[in-house]
Design brief:
binds phosphoenolpyruvate; binds magnesium ion; pyruvate
């Protein structure tokens, strides 16, 4: 019965009073596309391009191989949005040809955009492959960089995109607290923000996402994390730009309502979560989501934040 009720929820993501929040899919490559289409994803909010590079850790895949993979994903969402993240190597995803072997703290070392700025030829090839893949397609391509720390990073990425002749919107992921704190400055260089709440939690709480013993601090309901989400979303609004979430936080239906209340403009998640988030979001007005968000931020722990949001939305 629950399954039937969920299957009945189709269409674009929105609150009960019609405030639209596009529900997008996180994909790792062409193999994830059918599930995303079936779930009614309005596009792709995070295409993790690492998968293409993980087959062979000694060198980058050829431009042709990349064009082929990118095109398969782009073709699946005609008229839709596809947000491609450039290679996010290092830390938990080391690549021999990119990642320094001797880092004492790989999560704080040369990873994400930092690796690409150290190896501009790898970034150039990837951007050129994306430009070719999008050629002639009506898709709305957006390209974003992982691990942007400040405006200097954002400018370096935007410059590389322009030099590659990419017809797309350029964005920055907010995964480091400095990026949330200075979001307005970063938005002088790029056109959108996307919050990677997994890494943002890791760096806000100094809690390694791979270490189970500190998982309490990885909880995306932590009020400090919600504060950084709010700051990013408010900064984007002040600049007339968008701010989505593509971390795991977006896949929790109750938290998705809170994120909407904080001002987040799109939610990207694993395809399997989309029907649940769509159904829950559709039950509440934007004002209810805003009240739930305020209650969650007023809490002093993740657990209290969750309870407070639940109490507001269930009318307790
Ligand atoms: C994140 O950090 O929240 C994110 C979306 O990127 P990844 O999980 O691939 O690091
Ligand atoms: Mg990340």
């Amino acid at each position: 019965e629950r399954k039937a009720a969920l299957a009945a929820t189709t269409g674009p993501g929105a609150t009960s009073d019609g405030h639209k929040v596009p529900l997008l899919a996180n994909v790792g490559g062409p193999a994830d596309v059918p599930a995303a289409v079936e779930a009614g994803a309005e596009g792709v909010g995070l295409f993790r391009t690492e998968f293409l590079f993980l087959d062979d850790s000694t060198k980058a895949p050829t431009e042709e191989k990349q064009v082929d993979a990118y095109r398969q994903v782009l073709e699946a969402f005609p008229e839709g949005r596809v947000v491609v993240r450039v290679l996010d190597a290092g830390a938990d995803k080391p690549l021999d040809f990119l990642t320094p072997a001797d880092e004492p703290n790989p999560a704080l070392g040369v990873r994400g955009l930092r690796s690409l700025l150290d190896h501009p030829e790898v970034l150039r090839t990837q951007l050129s492959a994306l430009a070719k893949a999008a050629e002639g397609l009506p898709v709305y391509l957006e390209v974003m960089a992982p691990m942007v720390a400040d405006r200097t990073d954002a400018k370096a990425f935007a410059d590389a995109c322009r030099e590659a002749g990419l017809q797309a919107k350029f964005g920055a992921m907010v995964e480091i607290p400095s990026a949330a704190l200075r979001a307005r400055s970063i938005l002088q260089e790029v056109e959108f923000l996307s919050l990677g709440t997994n890494d943002l939690a890791q760096y806000t709480f100094a809690a390694d996402r791979q270490v189970g013993a500190v998982s309490r601090l990885q909880d995306p309901w932590q009020p400090a994390l919600l504060d950084l989400v709010a700051l990013s979303a408010e900064s984007a609004k002040a600049e007339g730009k968008s701010c989505g979430v593509c971390g795991e936080a977006a896949s929790d239906p109750l938290l998705a309502c809170v994120l909407t209340g904080l001002g987040v403009t799109s939610l990207s998640m694993g395809a399997a979560s989309i029907p649940y988030v769509r159904a829950t979001l559709g039950k509440y007005t934007l004002a209810q989501c805003e009240r739930a968000a305020a209650a969650a931020r007023a809490a002093d722990s993740a657990e209290e934040a969750r309870k407070a949001a639940h109490a507001v939305l269930s009318g307790e």
